[in-house]
Give the backbone structure.
Amino acid sequence: MDVVLVGPGALGGLLAVRLTPVLEKAGGQLTVLDHNPDRAARLARQGLTLVTGESKRHVRPRVCSDPRRVGQCELLLICVKSNDLATTLASLSPLIRADTLVVGFQNGMTHVDLLRNTAGCAAAGVTALGASLAGAGRILFGGHGPTRLGLLSGEQGRPTLDRLLALLRQAGLEASISGNILTDLWQKLFVNVGINALTAIHNRKNGQLLTSCALRSTMKQAVNEAVAVAEQNRIPIMADPIAATFAVCRKTRANVSSMLQDVRRRKKTEIMAINGFVVGQGRELGIATPVNSELVNRILAIEASWTENHA
C-alpha cells in the first residue's frame, strides 16, 4: 500500500516515523509531501527522527514538494494546520481519484466541510498523541493517546480506512474506528476550546492552567459555551466535557499546546477553527459566547502585535 502524508510537522512527522517501517516491511511506501522545496530537500537528505526520552528512531521516507511528481494514491493523510487546508487540498488534486481516502487530522471544526468537498472519500482523524517539533525533521514525542478514525460521507472508503487502522496498530499506536466521527471531533473541540487559547495567552503548559482558580473558571465558561452550541446542533455529548478537559490537562500537564507552540514561533494560530468556530456558530444560533469571543480577541491581538513590532 502506497501512502502519501502531507505536512511533516509535529503530528505528521510522528506518523511518518512510525508508519514508514511498517509500510516498507509490507512492500509499500510512504511519501512525505512538504510545500517548502528547500525543507523537502533537506528532509530527503537527512530523514526524520522521533525522540522519545533517551531513545531515537530514524527513518528516510521518500520526500517531495511537488504533488504532480507523486501521482494518484490510495490513501492521503493530511496533517497541515486548519488554516492551510483549503490551499493544500487545491494543490493535491493530482493525487486524488474517486476512491482515494482523504483523511484530515486538523484541530477545530472548520476542516470538515472542506474535506467533504474533495473528489475522494472524506474521513477525519482525532488523536490524543502528543508531539512537538524541535526542528525540521526532528520530533519530540509528548505522550501516548488514542486515535479515532471515521468517514465523513458514505461508506466507499471503508476498506481503505480499515487498512489504515491496521497500519496504525502495527505501528504500535492505539487506534479505533468511530461510528460517528463528528461526535469525536466535537469532544476534541471542547478540550481545545478550554485549553489552547489560555495556554497561549498566559504562556503556560497544559497542567499549569489548573493551578489558577481564575483560569479554571474561564476554562469552564468557555467549554460550557461550546457545549451550548453543540446541544443546539443536536450533537450527542458522550462524556462530561469539563471533567474531560481537566483530565486532559492533568494527563498532558507537561505538554506545550499546539497554539502555544505557534505563538512562541510567531506563527498564525488555529484560533478561528477552535474558539472562533464556537463564536461563529453562537452568532448563527443566537447563543451568547462572550468568553470565547474574548479569547479569540486576545489571540488575534497577540498575532497583530507581531506585525506591528516588525513594522
User: Anything to note?
Assistant: The CA atoms of residues 35 and 200 lie 26 Å apart. The domain at 182-310 is CATH 1.10.1040.10 (N-(1-d-carboxylethyl)-l-norvaline Dehydrogenase; domain 2).
